[in-house]
Amino acid sequence: MPIRTIFAMLSDRGQVRRHNEDACAASPLSSVFVVCDGMGGAAGGEIASHLAAETFVSQISLSRAVDSLRSSNLRSVIDAAVQAANRAVYQQSRKTAHLAGMGTTLVALVHAGDQEPSTDNVGRHSAPSLWLVHVGDSRCYRWRQRTLEQLTVDHSLVEEQVRAGQITAAQALASPMRNVITRAVGTEPAVEPDIQGHCPQEGDLYLLASDGLTREISEGDITKILCRMPVEITAGALQLVCRQLVEAANARGGNDNITVLLVGFVPA
């Protein structure tokens, strides 16, 4: 059966920060969804995140408007869109003194369009129709058959230390270096994104989130909230879950801006 995307998103200042340096954007027509978490001070972070999100979405939308892209072509288009976002932020930071050094994380999904899931002759998915890209420590999770799976690996100092066996995951959460990211959009003339292909299934739910969510609540907390969602995914249900996730993070302190974007796959 053909599948299509529905989505909901919500961004919140949190309980401590005076400004919201997160941004989220979506183009349902182009099936592109993005979350960015800016850095570089209140003005710089907010400008960087919004500029990156808007540039990324507009570049994907423009490419899809002028060409009927196959899924196999989307990987290069996505990389080009990340580079365009990177240039936009980098050039803006170079032109304005008080914005020097600003940057942002980026995590995004691009779907090839409303279509039958691609399968081979023995029923396995053979070609990805969903592309995931990220830079920094904003994350993507997949909720499938009541199981939550983190799909991205943080580009952060503590993640590198955990993977090297230097510290534990619990120590990483308490580390004074936990805010240090090793890749960002806009801090250098070019950036290397991680790009993955996935084969979505009917009933899948993908969660894009800034670290204002994942620092405050655990995967177990997220799972409990998602378990309360009805079996039949609707836009209204997704909006309710967005609000519940943000409220849960705020209840745990809300020490950072909190942004969540949910993409569900339903029958076309």
Element layout with pairings:
Elements: E1 3-12, E2 22-27, E3 32-39, H1 41-66, H2 71-95, E4 103-104, E5 106-111, E6 130-135, E7 139-144, E8 147-150, H3 157-163, H4 169-174, E9 194-198, E10 205-209, H5 211-214, H6 219-227, H7 235-251, E11 258-267
Antiparallel strand pairs: 1-11, 2-3, 3-4, 3-5, 5-6, 6-9, 7-8, 7-10, 10-11
Terminal CA distance:
8 Å
CATH architecture: 4-Layer Sandwich
Structural domain tally: 1
The SSE order reads EEEHHEEEEEHHEEHHHE
Tertiary shape: globular
Corresponding CATH superfamily:
PPM-type phosphatase domain
* CATH fold-level label: Phosphatase 2c, domain 1
Number of helices: 7
Low-confidence stretches: none
Q: What integer value in Å does the Rg equal? A: 18 Å
Largest beta-sheet details: 6 strands, antiparallel
User: Which CATH C-level class is it?
Assistant: Alpha Beta
Count of beta strands: 11
What proportion strand? Answer: 25-35%
Structural class comes to: alpha+beta
What is the mean pLDDT? Answer: 90
- Tell me the helix content: 25-40%
Overview of the molecule:
This protein has 268 residues and is of the alpha+beta class. The protein has a single domain (3-267), classed as PPM-type phosphatase domain (Phosphatase 2c, domain 1, 4-Layer Sandwich), CATH 3.60.40. The chain is built from 7 helices and 11 strands. The protein has helices at 41-66, 71-95, 157-163, 169-174, 211-214, 219-227, 235-251, and strands at 3-12, 22-27, 32-39, 103-104, 106-111, 130-135, 139-144, 147-150, 194-198, 205-209, 258-267. The strands form 2 sheets. Strands 2, 3, 4, 5, 6 and 9 form a 6-stranded antiparallel beta sheet that branches. A 5-stranded antiparallel beta sheet has the order 1-11-10-7-8. Helix 1 (41-66) runs antiparallel to helix 2 and helix 6 packs antiparallel against helix 7 (235-251). It is globular.
